Amino acid sequence: MDDATSLDRLHDIVVPPEVPWWPPAPGWYAVMILVAAGVLAIAYRSWRHWQANRYRRAALQELQSADSAASVSEILRRTALAIQPRAEIADLVGDLWAAWLSEAAPLPMPAQVREQLASAIYRKSETTDELNSLREYASGWIQTHEIPAATNPLPEDRHGC
């Protein structure tokens, strides 16, 4: 019975053990470090963007309680002071103020709003419709105005609005 061709003499197939997923190969450590660095960079940039727009959020919140054209103009002026030096903004009054606002944002300024901003301090009261259009423009301006490239986005002394 010593048959060389007998199937009883065969051994079972030996399967190697499965490769565990942990610890990964060294290349995966590099990929994990890059992904973690990318996530941290995105989180940091998002945080900086959120911090840089803090003055916008504060101005929009104050704008909700503004009850006159003068108070809306004041909020716009304080917002402008967050992005431009005081010397440049403080001298702007009347039509110059309205023109500067118009140039600083891609938003078209309606003539009624321009007139309100130019003569806001000389008026006693406005109708609700006039004030709403001014508030709407101010809200759009606060959200869309552009920060001049030469200006530091938010120096420490300009954070408050």
Walk me through what this model shows.
The chain has 161 residues and is an all-alpha fold. Helices cover 56% and strands 0% of the residues. It is built from seven helices and no strands. It has helices at 26-52, 54-63, 69-81, 86-89, 94-104, 111-118, 128-144. Helix 2 (54-63) packs antiparallel against helix 7 and helix 3 runs parallel beside helix 7 (128-144). The protein is rod-shaped, with a radius of gyration of 32 Å. The N and C termini lie far apart (101 Å). 16% of the residues are buried. Mean pLDDT is 86; it is low at 155-161.
Radius of gyration: 32 Å
Q: What distance lies between the first and last C-alpha atoms, to the nearest angstrom?
A: 101 Å
The overall strand count is 0
What is the tally of helical segments?
Answer: 7
Helix content, binned percent: 55-70%
Strand content: under 5%
Residue windows where pLDDT falls under 50 for at least 5 positions: 155-161
Q: What structural class do the secondary elements suggest?
A: mainly alpha
Instruction: Report the mean per-residue pLDDT as an integer.
Output: 86
The helix-strand sequence is HHHHHHH
Shape: rod-shaped
Characterize the largest beta sheet: strand count, sense, and whether it forms a barrel: none
What structural keywords apply?
161 residues, 7 helices, disordered C terminus
Topology:
Layout lengths: L25 H27 L1 H10 L5 H13 L4 H4 L4 H11 L6 H8 L9 H17 L17
Short overview:
This protein is an all-alpha fold.
